[in-house]
Design a protein that fits this description.
seven-stranded mixed β-sheet, globular, DNA polymerase, domain 1, alpha/beta, 17 helices, Rossmann fold
Length: 351
């Protein structure tokens, strides 16, 4: 842990980290504190979005394995294992806090679930490493619930949110890779401008990039201040002025676009005929990637003029459910505001 992280890590999280690493006296590693840490992780992971829709989709599948490629706190997995006794789940997550919380939550299901440390871009390799769990069963579904969890946002030490001053980290796996501050130390200004524009920061992308790179922020507060200096008060839209900048940095630090594209391709490869892939996205950039990959798979890569019909012999790989994404109901949005921006796209693997 570096000095900046020690300075800004809230005391409660620092004491919990001591329990996790065992770097304090034996009295700090009491079972009570360990249980409290797991309970906190469970309580702060977000409520599963579109849960009833996901359960309805996958419980109709035949016996086999579902790959929950973004396991999080295990909310969707728990609902599926409860509602569909014919299914088993291979859960994937790169966040150690998420794996700890889901392991506790899913313990009651015993051998019907296995949790793996991986990203969804590593889906194929994860299947190979867990071949003993999959056995002769088919992969009858792949679920991806994208984006950042409420737990990651609420834990100030992770650096995902502008709501509290914290080290500028933003890694989904805080034990590997470079932090957001390290990314900013070497990123080219033109590249940073493109990244901001790709995430919806249009008019002031150039001035924001210049301000941020000049100041080289090390904390979320310093990043927010750099963004505020670049955007006039009169030009600020509804919502926090740094929202899209934080989003863009998080996506870059965690290679989320590349992970999503490769993960979707892998999912379509490993699915058995009749298997479902379901993806919940939360912003237009994610949804664009999902829509593009599923469209390419549904046409078999055909680019023949529509008025002529397909003459290239392309073979569709999937059938996409509906032309537009499914949204959360007004009731769910009222109960769980995070569901407001959720978009669910579903496709079925063809023979």
């Amino acid at each position: 842990m570096n000095g900046v992280q020690q300075k800004y890590r809230p005391r409660t999280m620092r004491s919990l980290a001591i329990v996790k690493t065992g770097r304090e006296s034996s009295s700090a590693c009491s079972p009570i504190l360990t249980i409290e840490r797991l309970q906190m992780a469970q309580d702060t992971f977000h409520v599963p979005v579109l849960e009833s829709e996901i359960v309805e989709l996958f419980t109709s599948q035949p016996a086999g394995v579902i790959i929950d490629a973004t396991l999080g706190g295990g909310g969707h997995a728990s609902a599926l294992l409860t509602g569909a006794p014919q299914l088993r789940i291979l859960g994937i997550d790169r966040d150690p806090d998420a794996r700890a919380a889901s392991a506790e939550r899913l313990a009651e299901f015993g051998g019907r679930v296995r949790i793996a440390d991986a990203t969804f871009g590593q889906l194929r390799d994860t299947m190979v490493r867990n071949a003993d769990f999959i056995g002769d069963d088919s992969i009858v579904g792949v679920l991806m619930d994208l984006g950042v969890s409420s737990h990651q946002l609420d834990d100030a030490s992770r650096g995902f949110s502008f709501r509290a001053d914290a080290p500028l980290d933003m890694r989904m796996d805080p034990t590997r890779g470079e932090t957001a501050a390290q990314f900013l130390s070497h990123v080219d200004q033109h590249q940073f401008v493109r990244l901001l524009r790709d995430n919806g920061e249009g008019r002031f992308a150039g001035s924001i990039a210049k301000s941020v790179l000049e100041r080289q922020p090390q904390t979320t507060g310093e990043l927010t201040e750099a963004v505020e200096r670049a955007v006039p008060m009169a030009a600020r839209r509804r919502g926090h002025v740094a929202t899209r900048v934080f989003q863009a940095l998080r996506i870059a630090v965690n290679s989320e676009v590349d992970e999503l594209a490769s993960g979707l391709d892998a999912a379509l490869d490993v699915l058995a005929p009749g298997g479902l892939v379901a993806v919940i996205s939360y912003h237009s950039g994610e949804d664009r990637v999902v829509k593009s990959v599923l469209h390419e798979a549904s046409t078999g890569g055909c680019h023949c003029p529509p008025e002529l019909g397909c003459v290239c012999g392309a073979i569709p790989r999937v059938a996409v459910f509906k032309a537009s994404a499914r949204l959360a109901s007004p009731h769910e949005i009222d109960q769980n505001p995070r569901a407001r921006s959720a978009r669910l796209r579903v496709a079925r693997k063809l023979p």
